[in-house]
Specification:
Order of helices and strands: HEHEEEEHEHEEHEHEEEHEHEHEEH
Shape: globular
Structural class: alpha/beta
CATH class of the largest domain: Alpha Beta
CATH architecture of the largest domain: 3-Layer(aba) Sandwich
Number of strands: 16
Bound molecules: ribose-5-phosphate
Distance between the termini: 11 Å
Protein backbone atom coordinates (compact mmCIF):
# COMPACT_ATOMS: atom_id res chain seq x y z
CA UNK A 1 0.00 0.00 0.00
CA UNK A 2 1.36 3.44 -0.93
CA UNK A 3 1.73 6.21 1.63
CA UNK A 4 -1.00 8.31 0.00
CA UNK A 5 -3.56 5.50 -0.06
CA UNK A 6 -3.13 5.12 3.71
CA UNK A 7 -4.28 8.68 4.33
CA UNK A 8 -7.87 8.99 5.32
CA UNK A 9 -10.35 11.35 3.76
CA UNK A 10 -12.50 13.79 5.63
CA UNK A 11 -15.60 14.74 3.64
CA UNK A 12 -16.82 18.34 3.91
CA UNK A 13 -20.43 18.64 2.71
CA UNK A 14 -21.06 21.92 0.89
CA UNK A 15 -24.60 23.31 1.18
CA UNK A 16 -25.40 22.33 -2.42
CA UNK A 17 -24.49 18.66 -2.04
CA UNK A 18 -25.09 17.50 1.53
CA UNK A 19 -26.84 14.26 0.65
CA UNK A 20 -24.33 13.33 -2.03
CA UNK A 21 -21.44 14.11 0.35
CA UNK A 22 -22.90 11.75 2.94
CA UNK A 23 -23.22 9.01 0.30
CA UNK A 24 -19.60 9.56 -0.79
CA UNK A 25 -18.39 9.42 2.82
CA UNK A 26 -20.31 6.19 3.35
CA UNK A 27 -18.85 4.66 0.17
CA UNK A 28 -15.30 5.71 1.00
CA UNK A 29 -15.59 4.93 4.72
CA UNK A 30 -14.66 8.51 5.68
CA UNK A 31 -15.78 10.84 8.46
CA UNK A 32 -17.92 13.87 7.73
CA UNK A 33 -16.75 17.31 8.79
CA UNK A 34 -19.37 19.27 10.70
CA UNK A 35 -19.90 22.70 9.16
CA UNK A 36 -22.10 25.32 10.76
CA UNK A 37 -23.72 27.30 7.96
CA UNK A 38 -26.52 29.71 7.29
CA UNK A 39 -27.69 32.23 4.73
CA UNK A 40 -28.41 35.76 5.91
CA UNK A 41 -31.60 37.51 4.77
CA UNK A 42 -29.58 39.54 2.26
CA UNK A 43 -28.33 36.33 0.62
CA UNK A 44 -24.80 36.21 2.06
CA UNK A 45 -23.50 32.81 3.18
CA UNK A 46 -21.97 32.24 6.63
CA UNK A 47 -19.74 29.30 7.64
CA UNK A 48 -18.02 28.21 10.82
CA UNK A 49 -15.71 25.21 11.09
CA UNK A 50 -14.64 24.33 14.60
CA UNK A 51 -13.00 20.92 14.18
CA UNK A 52 -9.24 20.66 13.82
CA UNK A 53 -8.40 19.95 10.18
CA UNK A 54 -4.63 20.57 10.33
CA UNK A 55 -2.76 18.10 8.08
CA UNK A 56 -6.03 16.38 7.16
CA UNK A 57 -6.99 15.54 3.62
CA UNK A 58 -10.38 17.15 3.12
CA UNK A 59 -12.68 16.70 0.11
CA UNK A 60 -15.30 19.43 -0.13
CA UNK A 61 -18.35 18.23 -2.06
CA UNK A 62 -20.14 21.16 -3.63
CA UNK A 63 -21.97 21.04 -6.94
CA UNK A 64 -22.31 24.38 -8.73
CA UNK A 65 -25.83 24.23 -10.15
CA UNK A 66 -28.13 27.28 -9.81
CA UNK A 67 -27.87 29.57 -7.97
CA UNK A 68 -24.48 29.11 -9.64
CA UNK A 69 -22.57 32.06 -8.28
CA UNK A 70 -23.79 31.48 -4.71
CA UNK A 71 -22.70 27.84 -4.86
CA UNK A 72 -19.31 28.89 -6.24
CA UNK A 73 -18.83 31.50 -3.50
CA UNK A 74 -19.72 28.92 -0.85
CA UNK A 75 -17.15 26.51 -2.29
CA UNK A 76 -14.50 29.24 -2.31
CA UNK A 77 -15.27 30.29 1.28
CA UNK A 78 -15.04 26.73 2.57
CA UNK A 79 -11.85 25.97 0.63
CA UNK A 80 -10.23 29.17 1.87
CA UNK A 81 -11.02 28.46 5.51
CA UNK A 82 -9.93 24.83 5.35
CA UNK A 83 -6.65 25.75 3.61
CA UNK A 84 -6.03 28.50 6.16
CA UNK A 85 -6.57 25.94 8.93
CA UNK A 86 -3.88 23.68 7.44
CA UNK A 87 -5.94 21.08 5.54
CA UNK A 88 -5.01 19.68 2.13
CA UNK A 89 -8.11 20.72 0.22
CA UNK A 90 -9.63 18.80 -2.68
CA UNK A 91 -12.78 20.02 -4.43
CA UNK A 92 -15.36 17.55 -5.67
CA UNK A 93 -17.58 19.59 -7.96
CA UNK A 94 -20.09 17.06 -9.36
CA UNK A 95 -21.62 19.57 -11.76
CA UNK A 96 -18.95 22.01 -12.88
CA UNK A 97 -20.55 25.34 -13.71
CA UNK A 98 -19.21 27.39 -16.60
CA UNK A 99 -17.78 24.25 -18.25
CA UNK A 100 -19.60 25.27 -21.44
CA UNK A 101 -17.52 28.44 -21.53
CA UNK A 102 -14.12 26.77 -21.62
CA UNK A 103 -13.04 28.99 -24.47
CA UNK A 104 -14.06 32.17 -26.22
CA UNK A 105 -16.47 31.18 -29.01
CA UNK A 106 -17.03 34.79 -30.02
CA UNK A 107 -14.45 37.51 -29.91
CA UNK A 108 -14.45 39.33 -26.58
CA UNK A 109 -16.10 36.55 -24.51
CA UNK A 110 -14.84 35.87 -20.98
CA UNK A 111 -13.47 32.33 -20.57
CA UNK A 112 -15.50 31.91 -17.38
CA UNK A 113 -14.24 28.40 -16.58
CA UNK A 114 -10.68 29.72 -16.61
CA UNK A 115 -11.59 32.39 -14.05
CA UNK A 116 -13.34 29.78 -11.88
CA UNK A 117 -10.24 27.55 -12.08
CA UNK A 118 -8.04 30.48 -11.10
CA UNK A 119 -10.24 31.28 -8.08
CA UNK A 120 -10.10 27.67 -6.89
CA UNK A 121 -6.32 27.82 -7.07
CA UNK A 122 -6.25 31.10 -5.15
CA UNK A 123 -8.13 29.58 -2.18
CA UNK A 124 -5.71 26.66 -1.96
CA UNK A 125 -7.59 23.88 -3.79
CA UNK A 126 -5.04 21.17 -4.62
CA UNK A 127 -7.19 18.99 -6.87
CA UNK A 128 -10.52 19.20 -8.68
CA UNK A 129 -12.77 16.25 -9.45
CA UNK A 130 -15.94 16.55 -11.48
CA UNK A 131 -18.36 14.27 -13.34
CA UNK A 132 -18.69 14.24 -17.15
CA UNK A 133 -17.22 17.66 -17.79
CA UNK A 134 -18.88 19.24 -20.83
CA UNK A 135 -15.63 19.22 -22.82
CA UNK A 136 -12.42 17.61 -21.55
CA UNK A 137 -10.49 20.56 -23.01
CA UNK A 138 -11.81 22.48 -20.00
CA UNK A 139 -9.60 20.41 -17.68
CA UNK A 140 -6.60 22.08 -19.27
CA UNK A 141 -7.57 25.40 -17.71
CA UNK A 142 -6.81 24.12 -14.21
CA UNK A 143 -3.30 24.61 -12.88
CA UNK A 144 -3.75 21.78 -10.36
CA UNK A 145 -4.67 18.15 -11.13
CA UNK A 146 -8.23 18.11 -12.50
CA UNK A 147 -10.12 14.97 -13.40
CA UNK A 148 -13.56 14.12 -14.77
CA UNK A 149 -15.08 10.76 -13.82
CA UNK A 150 -17.79 9.36 -16.07
CA UNK A 151 -21.35 8.52 -15.08
CA UNK A 152 -22.03 7.00 -18.51
CA UNK A 153 -21.54 3.38 -17.32
CA UNK A 154 -24.10 4.02 -14.55
CA UNK A 155 -26.60 5.47 -17.04
CA UNK A 156 -26.13 2.48 -19.35
CA UNK A 157 -26.47 0.07 -16.43
CA UNK A 158 -29.80 1.71 -15.52
CA UNK A 159 -31.14 0.91 -18.99
CA UNK A 160 -29.93 -2.67 -19.00
CA UNK A 161 -31.55 -3.26 -15.59
CA UNK A 162 -34.82 -1.40 -16.15
CA UNK A 163 -35.76 -1.64 -19.80
CA UNK A 164 -36.10 -4.29 -22.45
CA UNK A 165 -35.23 -2.37 -25.55
CA UNK A 166 -36.14 -3.35 -29.08
CA UNK A 167 -33.52 -2.60 -31.72
CA UNK A 168 -32.35 0.38 -29.70
CA UNK A 169 -30.17 3.20 -30.97
CA UNK A 170 -28.32 5.64 -28.71
CA UNK A 171 -28.24 9.19 -30.03
CA UNK A 172 -26.14 12.19 -29.16
CA UNK A 173 -27.89 15.43 -30.08
CA UNK A 174 -24.56 16.95 -31.08
CA UNK A 175 -20.97 16.25 -32.08
CA UNK A 176 -19.69 17.31 -28.64
CA UNK A 177 -21.37 14.23 -27.13
CA UNK A 178 -19.77 11.71 -29.55
CA UNK A 179 -17.42 10.09 -27.03
CA UNK A 180 -20.16 9.85 -24.39
CA UNK A 181 -22.75 8.28 -26.72
CA UNK A 182 -20.21 5.86 -28.14
CA UNK A 183 -19.24 4.68 -24.65
CA UNK A 184 -22.92 4.37 -23.69
CA UNK A 185 -23.78 2.35 -26.82
CA UNK A 186 -20.74 0.11 -26.45
CA UNK A 187 -21.80 -0.90 -22.93
CA UNK A 188 -25.36 -1.70 -24.08
CA UNK A 189 -24.06 -3.30 -27.31
CA UNK A 190 -26.36 -1.13 -29.44
CA UNK A 191 -25.78 1.21 -32.38
CA UNK A 192 -25.25 4.91 -31.98
CA UNK A 193 -25.75 8.05 -34.05
CA UNK A 194 -24.43 11.55 -33.60
CA UNK A 195 -27.00 14.06 -34.80
CA UNK A 196 -25.70 16.99 -36.72
CA UNK A 197 -26.98 19.85 -34.62
CA UNK A 198 -26.35 23.36 -35.67
CA UNK A 199 -26.96 26.04 -33.05
CA UNK A 200 -26.88 29.70 -33.99
CA UNK A 201 -24.70 31.11 -31.18
CA UNK A 202 -26.50 34.44 -31.33
CA UNK A 203 -30.18 33.41 -31.65
CA UNK A 204 -29.82 29.93 -30.02
CA UNK A 205 -31.92 28.29 -32.81
CA UNK A 206 -31.17 24.56 -33.37
CA UNK A 207 -31.55 22.53 -36.60
CA UNK A 208 -30.97 18.73 -37.03
CA UNK A 209 -30.03 16.80 -40.17
CA UNK A 210 -32.38 13.88 -41.12
CA UNK A 211 -31.54 10.34 -39.83
CA UNK A 212 -35.00 8.77 -40.43
CA UNK A 213 -33.59 5.57 -42.01
CA UNK A 214 -31.56 4.74 -38.91
CA UNK A 215 -34.30 5.30 -36.31
CA UNK A 216 -37.53 4.14 -37.93
CA UNK A 217 -39.40 1.62 -35.69
CA UNK A 218 -36.57 1.64 -33.17
CA UNK A 219 -36.33 2.56 -29.51
CA UNK A 220 -34.04 5.55 -29.20
CA UNK A 221 -32.11 6.84 -26.21
CA UNK A 222 -30.94 10.44 -26.38
CA UNK A 223 -27.73 10.80 -24.38
CA UNK A 224 -26.46 14.22 -23.35
CA UNK A 225 -24.26 15.67 -20.61
CA UNK A 226 -26.70 18.43 -19.65
CA UNK A 227 -30.41 19.07 -19.94
CA UNK A 228 -30.72 22.77 -19.27
CA UNK A 229 -33.71 24.50 -20.91
CA UNK A 230 -34.75 21.11 -22.35
CA UNK A 231 -34.98 22.66 -25.83
CA UNK A 232 -32.36 20.34 -27.37
CA UNK A 233 -34.19 17.25 -26.06
CA UNK A 234 -37.61 18.63 -27.02
CA UNK A 235 -36.54 19.37 -30.57
CA UNK A 236 -34.70 16.05 -30.94
CA UNK A 237 -37.79 14.16 -29.68
CA UNK A 238 -40.02 16.04 -32.11
CA UNK A 239 -37.73 15.15 -35.03
CA UNK A 240 -37.30 11.52 -33.93
CA UNK A 241 -41.09 11.10 -33.80
CA UNK A 242 -41.35 12.62 -37.28
CA UNK A 243 -38.70 10.13 -38.43
CA UNK A 244 -40.74 7.20 -37.08
CA UNK A 245 -38.87 6.27 -33.87
CA UNK A 246 -40.77 3.92 -31.50
CA UNK A 247 -40.12 4.83 -27.86
CA UNK A 248 -37.90 7.80 -27.00
CA UNK A 249 -35.87 7.98 -23.79
CA UNK A 250 -33.70 10.83 -22.56
CA UNK A 251 -30.71 10.44 -20.30
CA UNK A 252 -28.13 12.92 -19.07
CA UNK A 253 -25.55 13.30 -16.34
CA UNK A 254 -26.58 16.78 -15.22
CA UNK A 255 -30.32 17.51 -15.07
CA UNK A 256 -30.10 21.28 -14.69
CA UNK A 257 -33.73 21.64 -15.76
CA UNK A 258 -33.92 25.41 -15.63
CA UNK A 259 -37.23 27.29 -15.66
CA UNK A 260 -39.98 25.23 -17.39
CA UNK A 261 -37.59 22.54 -18.72
CA UNK A 262 -39.28 19.73 -16.80
CA UNK A 263 -42.73 20.59 -18.24
CA UNK A 264 -41.19 20.99 -21.66
CA UNK A 265 -39.61 17.54 -21.68
CA UNK A 266 -42.67 15.93 -20.07
CA UNK A 267 -44.80 17.29 -22.93
CA UNK A 268 -42.23 16.15 -25.52
CA UNK A 269 -43.45 12.55 -25.11
CA UNK A 270 -40.41 10.83 -23.60
CA UNK A 271 -40.95 7.34 -22.24
CA UNK A 272 -38.65 8.21 -19.33
CA UNK A 273 -36.06 10.86 -18.45
CA UNK A 274 -33.10 9.73 -16.38
CA UNK A 275 -30.41 11.87 -14.78
CA UNK A 276 -27.90 11.61 -11.95
CA UNK A 277 -27.75 13.32 -8.58
CA UNK A 278 -24.89 15.67 -9.50
CA UNK A 279 -27.88 18.03 -9.41
CA UNK A 280 -30.89 17.21 -7.23
CA UNK A 281 -34.05 17.06 -9.39
CA UNK A 282 -37.16 14.91 -9.92
CA UNK A 283 -35.23 12.86 -12.53
CA UNK A 284 -32.01 12.39 -10.50
CA UNK A 285 -32.41 8.63 -10.24
CA UNK A 286 -28.76 7.61 -10.38
CA UNK A 287 -26.31 8.10 -7.52
CA UNK A 288 -22.79 9.15 -8.59
CA UNK A 289 -21.37 8.65 -5.08
CA UNK A 290 -19.86 5.20 -5.89
CA UNK A 291 -17.82 6.51 -8.85
CA UNK A 292 -16.59 9.58 -6.94
CA UNK A 293 -15.74 7.46 -3.90
CA UNK A 294 -13.89 4.94 -5.98
CA UNK A 295 -11.88 7.74 -7.58
CA UNK A 296 -10.98 9.13 -4.14
CA UNK A 297 -9.89 5.67 -3.08
CA UNK A 298 -7.25 5.65 -5.81
CA UNK A 299 -5.54 8.79 -4.50
C1 LIG B 1 -24.57 21.50 -25.33
O1 LIG B 1 -23.62 21.44 -26.09
C2 LIG B 1 -24.84 20.50 -24.26
O2 LIG B 1 -24.20 19.28 -24.48
C3 LIG B 1 -26.34 20.27 -24.13
O3 LIG B 1 -26.81 19.71 -25.33
C4 LIG B 1 -27.03 21.56 -23.86
O4 LIG B 1 -26.43 22.24 -22.80
C5 LIG B 1 -28.51 21.33 -23.56
O5 LIG B 1 -29.08 22.59 -23.39
P1 LIG B 1 -30.63 22.82 -23.49
O6 LIG B 1 -31.30 21.80 -22.61
O7 LIG B 1 -30.81 24.22 -22.99
O8 LIG B 1 -31.02 22.69 -24.92
Amino acid sequence: MTKSSQREWLIAPGPASKELAINIARNVGADILYIDSKIFPDGESYFRIINDVRNKRVAIVQSTYPPVDRHISQLLFLAHKLSEDGAEVHAIIPYLAYARQHRAFLQGEVVSLGVFAHLLRSVGVKRVVTVDIHNVEGLGLFSMPAYSVSAIPLLAEYFSKNHTLSEAVAISPDFGGSVRVEAFARILKINHIVLEKVRDRTTGEIIFKDVAKQVQNKDVILVDDIISSGKTMELAAMKLKEWGAKRIFATCTHPLLVEDALDRIKKAGFEEVIGTNTIPSPVSKIDVAPILASYLSTL
